[in-house]
Amino acid sequence: MAGEIEARLKALDLTLPEVASPLANYVPFLHINNQLFISGQLPMRDGAAVTGKLGDTVSVEDGAKAAELCLFNILAQAKAALRDLDRIEQCLQLTGYVNAAPDFTDHPKVINGASDLMVEILGNKGRHTRAAVGCSSLPLGACVEIGAIFAIE
Amino acid sequence: MAGEIEARLKALDLTLPEVASPLANYVPFLHINNQLFISGQLPMRDGAAVTGKLGDTVSVEDGAKAAELCLFNILAQAKAALRDLDRIEQCLQLTGYVNAAPDFTDHPKVINGASDLMVEILGNKGRHTRAAVGCSSLPLGACVEIGAIFAIE
Amino acid sequence: MAGEIEARLKALDLTLPEVASPLANYVPFLHINNQLFISGQLPMRDGAAVTGKLGDTVSVEDGAKAAELCLFNILAQAKAALRDLDRIEQCLQLTGYVNAAPDFTDHPKVINGASDLMVEILGNKGRHTRAAVGCSSLPLGACVEIGAIFAIE
After folding, report:
1. Is the pTM of this model over 0.90?
2. A43 within domain boundaries
3. Where are the alpha helices (DSSP H) in A12-144?
4. Is residue B23 part of a domain?
5. Within a domain: C144
6. Nearest CB to B115: which of C26, C35, C136?
7. ipTM over 0.85 threshold
8. How many helices (H) and strands (E) does chain C have?
9. How far apart are alpha carbons C67 and C41 in whole angstroms?
10. How far apart are alpha carbons C69 and C72 in whole angstroms?
């Protein structure tokens, strides 16, 4: 059945956002040779990034919600690239960059916002490898940025 | 001959650790289409991460030893994925994240702990591309985190 | 026609630098199975890295010029790997690490130095996905480091 993932999005009452434009001279996605690369996505909401620093001005809970926004944008870019999200064979890798204070330690709980939602939407195809690390700062002051690589059927 | 790399591990008197469980809703490895992705591995020893910050509370020497622990965990995950480490064609990429103070400059010497050990164990198949960068903080307060991609025969 | 990209480099009056040696026990590039991985390149000029921190001692303009130097080194490594840059099918991914103060927000403008030059030299084949993030510090005190993955014909 086509549209399986679209149906799950509807069942979860989730709507993918409009795709965000790159901030510069690059592209949001490339699909070549069975792999789909997605540029680092920021937690864009209503055209602005959710800003702040974990371990300082942003709570782990709010950071996880921002990571969900990054994941929505990743899937929106994947849909723009593939038209049909059912073509995803597997999410291979998420790289989660957390805008974090020097003594912050809960990066995994922040990026879980993206990982959990990915698995909720894509099922086993959404189970990915990942790295979660702390950045001194991020573009636009965003509190999190996440890049992705998918395997495509 | 099968088990060539296992034999080298024995000759070096090295034992791979038990694989570490992911800290969240993701998987430690994915092997698809001749590539093996390994999640970012922390310097786990006896169930706890080696913590601290390079350029502050951790010396370059101790950071390099922590990077060796990351590499052991990477190879343990690779073995869990492949059963036989001889199936590795090449380590394509290590990404080395160093928990580092703002004025630290010796990231390469830290990640060398992993790079040198990789080549010692895998020989030319262990010669990888890499990036070594400084992070403001890392999960669990770990002093280093390393992710990897392998080409598989 | 062979040498199309070399011809464009000449038309732009650009000369690729001598390839920089790795700072440790790893390799600058690996070309396997239609992908070319390039190690993180620093802004080397006359054998020394351009140093400093964005949002502190380095301006966005000077950071962008340093990113250009990283890109030159990436292409020099690609040429050393492929002999002929025309074999590049597409630049798949740039990962741009900016040595940045905690309140810096213009990482995209810095990495644009590399992205713009890539597209100027490679045309549409140079249009890549990318992430741009802030690092607490970088090897040798460099102000920027950029890694790359290319698809090869």
Report:
1. yes
2. yes
3. 60-82, 107-122
4. no
5. yes
6. C26
7. yes
8. 3, 7
9. 9
10. 5
User: Is the torsion defined by CA of C8, C10, C14, C16 positive or negative?
Assistant: positive
Asked if residue A61 belongs to a domain, the reply is yes
Q: Is C75 left (phi over 0), alpha (psi -120 to 50) or beta?
A: alpha
Q: How many domains does chain C have?
A: 1
- Chain A contact present for B150, CB below 8 A: no
| 3-state SS, residue B70 | helix
Is residue B134 within 8 A of residue B107, CB to CB? The reply is yes
Amino acid at position C139, single letter: P
Using DSSP, state whether B150 is helix, strand or coil.
strand
**A132 beta partners:** A96
Pull the structure tokens for residue A30.
């490339």
Q: Is C134 on the interface with A (CB under 8 A)?
A: yes
CB spacing of B136 vs C38 below 8 angstroms: no
**Best to test chain B binding among A94, A97, A111, A129 (most B CBs inside 10 Å):** A129
Helices (H), ranges, A15-130: 60-82, 107-122
What pLDDT digit, counting tens, does each position of A13-54 carry?
888 888 877 767 799 999 998 999 999 999 998 889 999 999
Cβ–Cβ under 8 Å, residues B49 and B67:
no
Beta strands in B55-137 (DSSP E): 88-99, 129-135
CB B88 within 8 A of CB B150: yes
**A138 vs C: CB within 8 A:** yes
User: For A95-150, what is each residue's pLDDT tens digit?
Assistant: 999 999 999 999 999 999 999 999 999 999 999 999 999 999 999 999 999 999 99
Two structure tokens written together for A31: 């699909």
Pairing mode, if any, of strands B29-32 and A144-152? Answer: unpaired
Question: Which domain does C127 fall in, by range?
Answer: 35-152
Mean pLDDT in order along chain B per 10 residues (153 residues): 82 86 83 96 94 98 98 95 95 98 98 96 95 98 98 95
Q: In CATH, what number is assigned to the domain containing residue B107?
A: 3.30.1330.40
Cα separations in angstroms, B113 against B45, B144, C25: 15, 11, 9
The residues, ordered by sequence, that sit 6+ positions from A123 with a Cβ below 8 Å of its Cβ are A8
**CA distance to partner chain B, nearest, from residue A108 (Å):** 6
Given CA atoms A51, A54, A58, A63 in this order, what sign does their dihedral have?
A: positive
Tell me if B153 sits within 8 A of B87, measured CB to CB. yes
**CA-CA distance, B49 to B141, in Å (whole number)?**
8
How large is the angle between the packed helices A4-11 and A107-122, nearest 10 degrees? 120
